[in-house]
Design a protein that fits this description.
By secondary structure, this protein is α+β, with helices and mostly antiparallel strands. Helices cover 36% and strands 22% of the residues. The relative contact order is 0.12. The structure holds histidyl-adenosine monophosphate.
């Protein structure tokens, strides 16, 4: 039997309700914050992710579903959503237009990681990207929007924040860090030894305990920021405090993607095990220019839908819709006609096969229908339909032409 690939999952009843509820809730809130829906292709040129997420990142270096297509193009399934949205922003010349553009999206992302609880190879993100607003108030507003989304979904979290500086302050910091790392090089894990040359900042979030112990005395980014980055970081901290958001400074938060500048953040949950990041994002002021667009400040985030499905508190579901069934085959045309009539304003579940009343009621109950309407022998003769309200338990017979 052919099975789904490792790390890839079908989403069906009852998980589909959580899945849709998360997307609908997040979309509604993003729209309230002025975001518009954008859809971009799942397949993009590999070069897009190499240049944005970064060649030395794990995502690009180890985890891409990359192949040469029939036309000889080097393509890959998107490992994340930001790069494609930035490409679309530039390709549609919105960078030249100026002004502020805010987009939201949701859909599958693909990373060839080692599957485990909370870590899939195909997973779904909901994300937002805001272009053209360089102020730290936009970073704060995005964090506030994520708070609204998690509050609406009934999910608890802690926010971790850090600043990743800018081209003015980062080179100096990086030099200090590399110098420090060379001093402890021999004792670091193999990956970290390699990262000293390729991407020293990533050493900071190494998961190996002995590395973390060695890093305790390493230079801290936020103590080495230029004046502008420092001022933004302090403003963000003050705003988060003033709004009583549960946050902590995390000097080791560097994120797994290379495009960030200044604000970086993650929302983590203590309730879902090792893969605790439920959302992540930050500012990426250089990416548009990096992908050959006109320099445009930007900030965004994405949340992991599967991880949130583990945590979401679903609202009480009330019964909804109509179940239509028959106990006499000749009633089929009336059932079809009523189903079409009712579908203009409510959900209708139809059963075309003759069944006992008990079987129909059971099926209607299982589907969560509010009303169960059946045409039996007596009803057929009288031009009527029997209706039971499955909430109030009230039963009655109604003339077919009066049914609504
Ligand atoms: P990210 O932190 O790589 O950021 O992913 C965002 C979220 O996607 C994570 O916090 C996590 O909940 C979920 N996620 C990531 N990998 C997996 C996986 N293998 N299985 C299940 N869930 C996963 C980004 O992707 C950036 N594009 C976010 C962003 C948007 N930054 C600026 N704009």
């Amino acid at each position: 039997m052919i099975q789904a690939l490792r790390g890839m999952k079908d989403i069906l009843n009852p998980d589909n309700e959580r899945f849709i509820h998360i997307i609908n809730t997040a979309s509604r809130i993003a729209e309230r914050y002025g975001y518009q829906y954008i859809e971009t292709p799942l397949l993009e040129e590999t070069a897009l992710f190499k240049r944005s997420v970064g060649e030395s990142s794990d995502i690009v270096g180890k985890e891409m579903y990359q192949f040469i297509d029939k036309g000889g193009h080097d393509v890959c399934l998107r490992p994340e959503g930001t790069a494609g949205v930035v490409r679309a922003f530039i390709q549609n010349k919105l960078d030249k237009k100026g002004g502020i553009h805010r987009f939201y999206y949701h859909g599958p992302m693909f990373r060839y990681e080692r599957p485990q609880k909370g870590r899939l190879r195909e997973f779904h993100q909901f994300g937002c990207e805001s272009f053209g607003e360089g102020s730290v108030y936009e970073d704060f507003t995005i964090i506030l929007m994520i708070k609204d989304i998690f509050d609406a979904l009934g999910i608890g979290y802690t926010i971790k924040i850090n600043s990743l500086g800018c081209p003015e302050c980062m080179p100096g910091y990086r030099e200090n860090l590399v110098q420090h790392l060379h001093g402890i090089q021999e004792e670091l894990c193999e990956d970290c030894q390699r990262r000293i040359e390729t991407n020293p900042i990533r050493v900071l979030d190494c998961k190996v305990e002995s590395c973390q112990n060695l890093l305790k005395s390493s230079p801290v980014i936020v103590e080495n920021l230029c004046e502008a980055c420092d001022s933004d970081f302090n403003t963000l901290v003050k705003l988060l405090e003033a709004h009583s958001l549960p946050f902590e400074r995390d000097p080791k938060l560097v994120r797994g993607l290379d495009y960030y500048t200044r604000t970086a953040f993650e929302f983590v949950s203590s309730e879902i095990g090792a893969q605790s990041a439920i959302a992540g994002g930050g500012r990426y002021n250089r990416l548009v220019e990096f992908l050959d667009g006109k320099s445009t400040p930007a900030v965004g985030f994405a949340l992991g839908i599967e991880r949130i499905m583990e945590l979401v508190k679903m609202p009480e579901v009330s019964r909804e819709g109509l179940y239509l069934g028959l106990m006499e085959p000749e009633a089929i045309e009336t059932i079809l006609q009523l189903a079409h009539q009712q579908r203009q304003h409510e959900t209708v579940y139809t059963e075309y096969n003759k069944k006992s009343l008990k079987a129909h009621l059971k099926a209607a109950d299982r589907l969560g229908a509010k009303r169960c309407a059946i045409i039996g022998e007596d009803e057929l003769k009288a031009g009527e339909i029997w209706v039971k309200d499955l909430e109030t338990k009230e039963e009655k017979r109604i003339a077919i032409d009066q049914f609504n």
